[in-house]
Amino acid sequence: MTADLAVIGLGYVGLPLAQEAARSGLQVLGFDIHPGVVGGLNSGVSHVDDLSDADIAEMLDKGFRATTDPAEIGEAATVVICVPTPLAEDGGPDLGAVNAAVATVAKVLKPGMLVILESTTYPGTTDEVVRPVLEAGGLVAGKDFFLAFSPERIDPGNPVYGMKNTPKVVGGQTPECTRRAAEFYGTFVDTVVQARGTREAETAKLLENTFRHVNIALVNEMAKFCHDLGIDLWNVIEMARTKPFGFQAFYPGPGVGGHCIPIDPNYLSYNVRAKLGYPFRFVELAQEINHGMPTYVAQRVQDILNEDAKAVRGSTILLLGVTYKPDIADQRESPAVPLAKALQTMGAEVQFHDPHVSHWTAEGLDLERVADLDAALAGADLVVLVQNHAQYDGETITSTARRVLDTRGKLPQAESVEHL
Ligand SMILES: NC(=O)c1ccc[n+]([C@@H]2O[C@H](COP(=O)([O-])OP(=O)(O)OC[C@H]3O[C@@H](n4cnc5c(N)ncnc54)[C@H](O)[C@@H]3O)[C@@H](O)[C@H]2O)c1
Hints:
The protein is an alpha/beta fold and 420 residues long. The chain has 14 helices and 15 strands. β7 (168-172), α6 (175-186) and β8 (192-194) form a beta-alpha-beta unit. The radius of gyration is 23 Å and the shape is globular.
């Protein structure tokens, strides 16, 4: 074996893993089906926010190499699969990339190899979907090769918690599989926690994501009635969070984006419904509430303009921040998209600004960032703070814009500012 580790899928999850493993001295090979990704990495260019070109250069220095050649995976002692798990058209899990990656690994599986799935998926995937394909060639999991699931907990843009200092959960097909997977991660992650099995590790990830999904939905629903009752929910949350135990603050917003919150909990609810025939009601309710937030924000825009005796049709509305999280360029599932589309449908002239996005194209949207932020702030009939990027100065926005709807609770109280 010439590589200690082969990482399959070099995206937001796979690349930081490859980086940390390479840093700890492991010989790391990266495999991806996307030739652009592989070519870019081999020439020192990063395509994910959390890694700079300098980080890639450091990895290459330490022996990292990317490839599109599946045969090379067979050279690795451990294979970690980090491919996407999106939703299919019907809202169910789309395991196409996982199936393809596992089939690729099955062709080069060798005795003694450790195979770990990190892609977020429904409970039972490792045992019911991955294992049979790997075992089809005659090798048996737990005996001839080792199989485990370890949920990825990467939080893009988080300056404190990265791969190394975020505890890693591992659950193996057998106790020996768990032990080997824990030993592997222990070489470059500070804390490894052993789950009872693959299903517990798979479900732990979905519990973490569902917990956030449900709690965000809770405050989003409260935002609506607090507004109607004239109660400042942001202040309510500040008060509640002074309790040092039994409470964790979550904040309302224009909707949820990224992968973990809007998509992953659906894997669990789909699985519960498919296997047991009954719904996972919390997930379905949270989905409904969070999904409805962009429409609710559009309604609030309409109400504010109405107070100013203006129609949405023909008004210029400037959206600030269109990524799904602050201070990163990632736009996956960003609620700014349905918000912009709802406003356009109502006849608004939608403009946008985002320090991380110069050209915004999504689902029929095709907009250039405003060239002069101050001029756009002053010129818009209404400014909506959609994403709370650190670069946005609350005082400047408040003093320059005529009217602002702050969906993030960032701006100071002012005559011109309304909070969600
Ligand atoms: N991004 C996050 O913040 C995050 C956090 C926790 C968990 N996850 C989970 O991790 C998994 C990966 O997510 P990501 O954000 O890294 O995705 P990503 O889209 O950033 O990267 C996935 C990479 O896999 C490649 N790929 C697709 N099919 C492949 C195949 N058959 N063989 C090899 N490579 C293939 C793609 O070309 C892409 O480069 C998902 O299950 C996701 O739910 C993501």
